[in-house]
UniProtKB/TrEMBL annotation:
GO terms for biological process: proteolysis. Signal peptide: none annotated. This is DPPIV_N domain-containing protein. Residues 71-393 form the Dipeptidylpeptidase IV N-terminal domain. It comes from Macrostomum lignano.
Length: 413
């Protein structure tokens, strides 16, 4: 197996474990040889590294570790088992929380994650699970409803939605069209910084015509099945999926439905949802033809039962279509200190990094030079005011080689 193929199969996660006394970044990864979860700690200059075992597979009750996600304070692991594929990005699985020992010699603490009852006796298959920004706060989707728990080892999960048992309604996870072609993700809920609010999408496909899709299923099945998938085909005037964006406030236990700006057409796709801070949500829309794009900011700081999003950027893409809806590795990036959003947009025949001011209207400043065709923004160093991004342009020449990708750094101020 080549080194590049091994790298693509690595399971790892970068964290900043401030609550464990660390002063630098930590790389948590699964050791392919031993099956243990390891921790690599780097000093501030990144010239030395210390590696330690975070969790041995023999300590874990399942005896093996597959997919995992560590909490942001590095004290709890979320480990997936028995996943069953649904579509390209979606699956259902069982999940266990593992509280790591705080001192040598202590045993780990495990707890199955489920919506209610005795989770160890009746484990539940969950559709999507996310950590919050602090401690062991966790949110998940079960049976088309969203739950959260601020203290999952001590308190039962809280149900925040009450969805009808209707196959045309999807809550907190994407329907097929959004998963495959719009958001390119299974998850359709987002926990705010500080774990104060949860934004989520509700998809209503009751008026959308169904496409009969061949379904091959298990390799042991000799005959394929036919599954109906709500799909508004290109050129059809049949209705689109009706999408509503809602925000649940944990303190008040109230749900707010966000209204789109008047300039956004009635027939549209929601293409981007990101928290800017704990009270402001960034939302992107495109029209049905996907040649007009809109970005808005929604203020959740008021006590109103509804909130209207204000547009701060709109764009018409001539001779093409808007593609800021593709959420890649980390695009777009937020800089709350300067109230700017960094995103990749088309300009001068290239994809360039644009800085958008949230307080203005179409206030765009181009950060990267036109000769760089930017594939994705990876990181914004707010202290140094520098952006790290990927481009197929080399460091010293103007040759664009699409078969190669280079990491670049550029000033963002």
């Amino acid at each position: 197996m080549s080194m590049m193929r091994k790298m693509r199969q690595l399971r790892y996660q970068w964290l900043s474990c401030s609550k464990r006394g660390a002063t630098a970044d930590v790389l948590v990864y699964l050791n392919a040889s031993s099956g243990d979860i390891m921790q690599a700690s780097f000093d501030q200059n990144n010239d030395t590294v210390s590696v330690s075992r975070l969790l041995s597979k023999d300590q874990f009750s399942e005896g093996s570790i597959g997919h995992f996600v560590a909490s942001r304070d590095c004290q709890t692991l979320l480990i997936q088992s028995s996943p069953e594929k649904i579509y390209r990005h979606s699956s259902s699985a069982f999940y266990k929380l593992v509280a790591l020992p705080k001192a040598p010699g202590q045993r780990i603490t495990e707890k199955s994650l489920c919506p209610e009852g005795n989770c160890e006796v009746n484990p539940a298959r969950l559709r999507a699970v996310q950590w919050g920004s602090d401690g062991a706060f966790v949110a998940f989707v079960f049976d088309n409803n969203i739950y959260y728990s601020a203290k999952p080892f001590e308190e039962p999960a809280v149900k925040i939605t009450n969805s009808p048992l209707d196959p045309a309604i999807t809550v907190g996870t994407c329907n097929w069209v959004y998963e495959e072609e719009i958001l390119e993700s299974s998850d359709a809920f987002w926990v705010s910084p500080g774990d104060e609010r949860i934004a989520y999408l509700v998809f209503n496909d009751s008026a959308v015509q169904a496409y009969r899709m061949p379904w091959y299923g298990s390799p042991t099945n000799m005959y394929i099945q036919q599954r109906g998938v709500p799909y508004p085909k290109a050129g059809s005037r049949a209705p689109l999926t009706k999408v509503s964006l809602r925000v649940y406030d944990i303190a008040s236990r109230r749900t707010i439905e966000l209204s789109k700006p008047m300039a956004v057409p009635q027939e549209h796709y929601v293409t981007l949802v990101r928290w800017f801070n704990s009270t402001h949500l960034i939302v992107g829309w495109v029209n049905r033809n996907q040649d007009r794009g809109f970005l808005g900011v929604c203020d959740l700081g008021t006590a109103s039962a509804t909130a209207t999003c204000r547009l701060f950027f709109r764009h018409i893409q001539r001779n093409g279509w808007m593609d800021f809806n593709k959420q890649k590795a980390s695009e777009p990036l937020m800089d709350p200190a300067s109230e700017r959003l960094f995103i990749v947009l088309h300009n001068s025949g290239y994809r360039r990094i644009a800085a958008l001011r949230l307080g203005g209207s179409n206030q765009v400043s181009w950060v990267s030079p036109a000769s760089y065709d930017v594939a994705d923004i990876l990181h914004h160093d707010a202290a140094a005011q520098q952006l790290h991004f990927l481009s197929c342009r080399g460091a010293t020449d103007d040759v664009q080689d699409a078969t190669m990708m280079h990491l670049h750094r550029w000033d963002s101020d």
